Protein: Phospholipid-transporting ATPase
Organism: Austrofundulus limnaeus
Amino acid sequence: MTWRSPLALVRDALQGQRAREKELRSLTSNLPHEGQGRGTQPNRFFSSNAIKTTKYSLLFFIPMNLFEQFHRLANIYFVGLAILNFIPVVNAFQPEVALIPICVILSLTALKDAWEDFRRYQSDRRVNNMPCFIYSRKQKRFVERRWKDVRVGDFVKVVCNEIVPADLLLLYSSEPNGVCHIETANLDGETNLKQRTVVSGVCTTDRGFEPESFNSTVVCEKPNNNLNHFKCFVEKPNKEKLGAGIESLLLRGCTVRNTGHAVGFVVYAGHETKSMLNNGGSRSKRSKLERKLNIDVFFCVILLFTMCLVGSVGHYMWLESRTGSPPYLLPDSRSNSLASFHMFFTMIILLQILIPISLYLSIELVKIGQIFFIVNDIDLYDEETDSCMQCRALNITEDLGQIDYVFSDKTGTLTENKMVFRRCTIMGTEFPHKENAIRLAVLDEPESEEEIIFNQRPHSSQTAWSFEGEDAGPMDMHRRGQKKSKVVGTARSDVAFSSPLETEVVPDQNLVRQISRAESRGGSQRTDPYLDFFLALTICNTVVVSRATARRQRAGLSPCSSQTNNSFEALSDLVKKASLLIQRKSSRFRAQSQGPVIDSVRMESPADTNGLSPSVRPTAPAGSENLYYEAESPDEAALVHAARAYGFVLLARTPKNVSVRLPSGQVLDFEVLDVLTFDSNRKRMSVLVRHPITKECVLYTKGADFAIMELLGTPYAENLSKSHKNIASDTQRHLDGYAKEGFRTLCIAKKVVSEDEYRRWLVSRKSAQAAIEQKEQLIMDTAVQMETNLTLLGATGIEDRLQENVPDTTVALREAGIHVWVLTGDKLETAVNIGYACRLLEDEDLLISMSCKNKVTCTSSLDCNLEEMRRYSENPQNVGTIPNISLVIDGHTLAMVLSPDLQDRFVDLAKRCRTVLCCRMTPLQKSAVVKLVRDKLKVMTLAVGDGANDVNMIQAADVGVGISGQEGMQAVMASDFAISRFKHLKKLLLVHGHWCYTRLANMIIYFFYKNVAYVNLLFWYQFFCGFTGTAMIDYWLMIFFNLFFTSTPPIMFGIFDKDVSAEVLLGVPELYRTGQGKGEYNFLTFWISILDAFYQSLVGFFIPYWVYKDSDVDIFTFGTPLNTISLFTMLLHLSIEIKSWTVVHWIIMLGSVGLYFGVTLAYSAICVNCNPPSNAYWVLQSQMGDPMFYLVCTISTLVALLPRYTFHVLKNSISPSPLLQGRELDRMDPSTRDQWIREWRGFRGGGGGQVKRYQLSPPPSPTQETPVDFRPEFLNSAEATSDDFSLNVTTQRPVYT
């Protein structure tokens, strides 16, 4: 290693900083400089590929960890007091002793941080030493190196099933079409394959890619964390620029699949890769309870300063009252004023434990325990996906018990995100697919366990059909469907969106005949609307085609159940599955043989194959039935499978070609000219292809109805009959009907592009792709330029079914006092239908629909609705009633009401509504609504979603919940908590949320009480020792008291206590309301506990004082009963607060008592002269031999606890809280309790049972009803009429005129 001057090092550092901060980077190959020094490397200023996620180093761990811990003001406070105690004039304890508490806390925290950092170090070392292949110019081949050896500018080869070590610009693929298939599950959780293509024009030889011949410059943007966008171009020596984007970038962490090998150029390495820039670590938020805690700590500081000020003034008055210095005090030359000033700091040191030093550490331990029980709750485990509950934010568990508003996505959150093809309309003619509806009804029927088949592969695709069942009625179709083995629609599959529910479609016989007629007229030789419709479904997507032999094995994303190691059990399970398959093989074969087949009726003649171009093949390749489609969205998968059911089979897809087999068996190879990908602004995608027969450039487009209808041009053909002139209006009418039934709708269109138009457009397209500045906008502009004057082909209706128990969950959340809003991008009619199906909307609700075209109309609508609501609330007859009003608003109107001048009015209107449905929303609007409600109403918000479009909303809410659905893990990675089903939200909030909040709130209150009660014993003693800062309890025992004797019981209380059982909390959701708003931990409960602590300290001090007054007991003999009384009082106080006793409670409570006496007896026996001039030797032993000691401890403890016990008895007898009434239910026999809850929930309308699919119809006018009170037998009349009793029900509905 050569020596370099400091100036050279500084110069390189400055040059490197400037190079890294540039908006554009110019990268060249490292091969010409291989083996040379670092100073000659062209890309030396950029990050290496070695990563380091550790926070500390071995040498600097202690100072860095202490620096981080001192970010907490409480730690600075206690360290400052410990240092202050080293000053002789103000010290209250031995200086070394005062350091023990804070040193113990800092050490425990440091050990925890060190263990976490060591685990990160092990992970880093494992990743950095993973093998990879880097090209070497000296060896003329790819050689094996480690990930940490990769540098920007290297050429890296990645083989199949290997992980990409850095961000690579794809230059070569072993696949013939320059395609590389990757799996991004490690980045975003999406398990479907994605295609990446080589940069066009780089590898021009047939011999493969030769890294040494690469002499171009790669210009790319500065590293950023956007996984979906990448700006880059390759500049050749002749200054030709080749545009490249995200479609040519292999991201670090992705896995290469179904590709022999690929070669890429390293553009980002190490911490500059997109995956590392997205690795923000665990989320950290401050809970509402913690913010309240900090305020109360501030009050305790004020209280401490007040007590110290009293002590300082008292010491001054005591000194002034003395004519001379007492003989038992050393002469002091200080003035009385200076001595009292010093005494102020002495009192701070003495009374410092008023601020609970161990509270923050105890809170962290309690939250870890709470998370353990949440994650291991079997009810939150999903067997289908083998996924558990995940807690990604460790410090906001208690916020789950204080939620006021829940904002939910629809698709994939309330619904399964399993798209089922239901209906379609082509050229204004609707095809209802009644037979397919019957099949779905059969699948929905309950089935016995032995009827479930374990092989979840879809049946062989039907490439065509017979006319055997044309005249078959519904009953015939039903019987035919019963011959098939039933398949569970929600079974797991290796391929996303490939369950039998999604892949199998029974064709509509009328549509079958239309396609057959089109083919009989030689439809493949000419354009036909029906053929074009299904060609659009087959071609206009990004579905990846794989065959059975190429499918890869993939582990679950978050497996919770470990695989068995017992080979006998595995073999037994396999035999059981095989036997079930064998039993069904014959019946399944018969069922398939009776299904539609094409061979007997295939309309094919020898003339069909004459004169075909190479793009047209007469027969399908062998084994084409073993095709598997891997789609990025369930909509695409459903449409491709629907087209396959009609014989339009997608055989292969490459960046340049798409192969489709027609129902006749003829194979067409379409040349792909360009793909206009979907984006949230255009709401559509298009594929531009060259037709193999007509050689025309054809644009196939699919998208949202409003995005397609406004782009329509002339009708499909000029010679259409009059009945087809209004195709667009007929299609729109069918779309409205689909939306009312809750279906997702897509419009299909096409456009024939002339060669001249295509060439002109291609120039601007290539220019946009090679651009760096505003690249996305330019590309979108070119897409908009092409997507004009479209010809409407038809539309589809796809059903996305509700998840299990969604209606029950939404009803329970609403009964718990939680407002549920749905924020979706679907149509208004679809959202309303889902709202009725989810029980968010009821038949008797008054539905306010806001869909305004301009701001004036929007403002008028807001004012009118607000005025009606105010008039209702001001009516004396409506006092105490809640109007059943729901609001539905679309995205365009929402954009207007989010303006600053209308925000307040919108929030005022929305908070008066029971449910709000927001439709046609963008991701940014979702987050804006959440922020608006959170900030304006000052409420706790929770957002739940499953897709990338929900990330903004999840991060904007106080608590973000991600659902690990079929659209990847982006929402989960951005969330605080992750669940697999929406129904799990019910127990997560109503049970675990309630428990976490009540446990932690009561524990914090108890901590403040405990410290104030104990420190007041020292404060009261100052009145009898001249406020000299003397303690009547040994210093070591004072430290042990808080660190060991009384520290474990409150932690146990915060982890294990259950005020109400899970069954009652789920059965009576109203109990959740106790945590909303101010909750149990509020200003009143805090100061009541402080006053109770003052009272108990007075009793615990003055009863022993009066007993031992005028006796000859020494200072520690007087202090030992006080210490013992405090222990028993605090433990029994906690016993009163504990709601459910377990073996753990008894062990810890009795263990604390045993530990106290054991340690104190041992200390008194061995401490001969530990704290001079005082002496604690044999004090407790002597006290335990005196009956007066037991009498004093018993009487003092009982008198101290008498007010609290009396208060609880009177409150529970006169005005029982809802939680107490819930505990009364727990004392019932389980069968009686369950029957009572079922009857009560049935009375409230929240009973279980199947929820019917509501149709859109005008809701009936609400009428005034007589209030009805339901009183359980164990409640008296006073309890039933209490305002606080949330189980009382008043079902009154408003009257609107």
In short: The first strand starts at residue 24 and ends at 27. The mean pLDDT is 79. The radius of gyration is 37 Å.
